[in-house]
Amino acid sequence: MCFAVHPLLPTVAKLSPALYKRGPVSTSLARTMLHIRCGDDIREAFGASGIAGEFVRWADPLCQGPTPAGLTGEDWQQQRAGYLADRFGQPVAATGRYLAEQQANLDRWSEHEETVLWFEHDLFDQVILVYLLDWFAARTLGGHVLSLICIGDHAAVRPFRGLGQLDRDQLAALLPERRPVTAAQLDLGRRAWAAFRDPDPRAIEGLLRGDTSPLPFLADALRRHLQDFPGTGTGLARTQQLILEAVSQGASDPVEAFLAVQELEAAPWLGDSMFWPWLAELAEAAVPALAIDAPPDWPSYAPDLRGVDVHLTRDGHRLFYGELDWIAANGIDRWLGGVHLQGVEAAWRWDERAGRLVPA
């Protein structure tokens, strides 16, 4: 999970020239490296760590919004830019430039001898990881080394939420543990990305019935994605359900609600700037579940959101206890990967007890 005030920030930082390799460092054998991370959470510690190379952030939150199958190139960038601009309240032109810069940074992989992917176990990271594995699988790497660091825990940090918790020495110690990406990982990445983009979400369930061990955190991440389909009974996505649970348990402002949801998640994946629109939707719907005493420009991120009162409405209580259906009351217009749910009867629901999708 990559926490950031806003996802559209500078994406490149040069790192110091100290050299790290698997085993003892040899200057004559040291590779020039491109380091790819899905956010800025480790940027400062990374820059102080002495790790050689160039740091690039590739942070389009692909676990949110449209990723329809068959869309490529400029059409893909335009759709993603439109979604991100609308979701985060940014000018679409600036968002488009950010995505173009992000892609240009990625396109320079061949200027280096090794690319190191830095990821962790949550939904946000895993979806970007399979996107990048799919992208690299379509390239002829030749002698270029593609390596992966992907962890779900750390002995020095409990509970482990993400790489952003690690200090410079702990990050530096991870680099010698990187491993070359295998053919099996590239293949699974391609199949997972195709399933994620499929307009039929059963493609993901089919993938999960197979062997996902080459990417050991992928299965749990994709199941978490499926849990954000409207739930049977309430019509609420799991993210919405957790927000209502956090508020019902005493979170009284947006910041407290965000922090409480992180504690309720087994593998927190929702960064702060991604959280506010979820909260806003619950408050701004035709039949709102939350009431928020907010400033006029809310939900744009601001530190003074602490202290803004948030509480369940009467209908929020009914939703929380399964006495009202969110979709029937408010309809839905939401992309989940390649699936676009629209109208007052979402085509698919998530049955938590059965652990599977069911047609509406």
List keywords for this structure.
Arc Repressor Mutant, subunit A, 2 domains, globular, alpha/beta, 6-stranded mixed sheet, Rossmann fold, 360 residues
Strand-helix topology:
Layout: E1 12-14, E2 33-37, H1 43-48, E3 54-57, E4 65-66, H2 73-88, H3 92-107, E5 114-120, H4 123-137, E6 145-151, H5 168-174, E7 179-180, H6 183-197, H7 202-208, H8 218-226, H9 238-248, H10 254-264, H11 272-284, E8 290-292, E9 310-312, H12 314-320, H13 326-330, E10 332-337, E11 339-343, E12 348-351, E13 356-359
Helix pairs in contact: 2-3, 4-6, 4-8, 6-7, 9-10
Please give a structural write-up.
This protein has 360 residues and is of the alpha/beta class. It has two domains: 184 residues, Rossmann fold; 122 residues, Orthogonal Bundle (Arc Repressor Mutant, subunit A). Helices cover 38% and strands 15% of the residues. It contains 13 helices and 13 strands. The strands form four sheets. It has a six-stranded mixed sheet. Helix 2 crosses helix 3, helix 4 packs across helix 6 and helix 9 packs across helix 10. It is globular and about 60 Å long. It starts with 11 loop residues before the first strand and ends with a strand. The N terminus is likely disordered.
CATH second-level architecture of the largest domain: 3-Layer(aba) Sandwich
User: What is the helix content?
Assistant: 25-40%
- Could you tell me the radius of gyration in angstroms? 21 Å
CATH top level assignment of the largest domain:
Alpha Beta
Task: Note the overall shape.
Answer: globular
- The low-pLDDT segments are 3-29
Strand tally: 13
Order of strands, main sheet, comes to 1-3-2-5-6-7
Class of secondary structure makeup:
alpha/beta
CATH topology of the largest domain: Rossmann fold
Oligomer: single chain
Number of helical segments with 4 or more residues: 13
Mean pLDDT: 89
Terminal CA distance: 31 Å
Order of helices and strands: EEHEEHHEHEHEHHHHHHEEHHEEEE
Beta fraction of the residues? 15-25%
Number of domains: 2
Mind summarizing the main beta sheet?
A: 6 strands, mixed
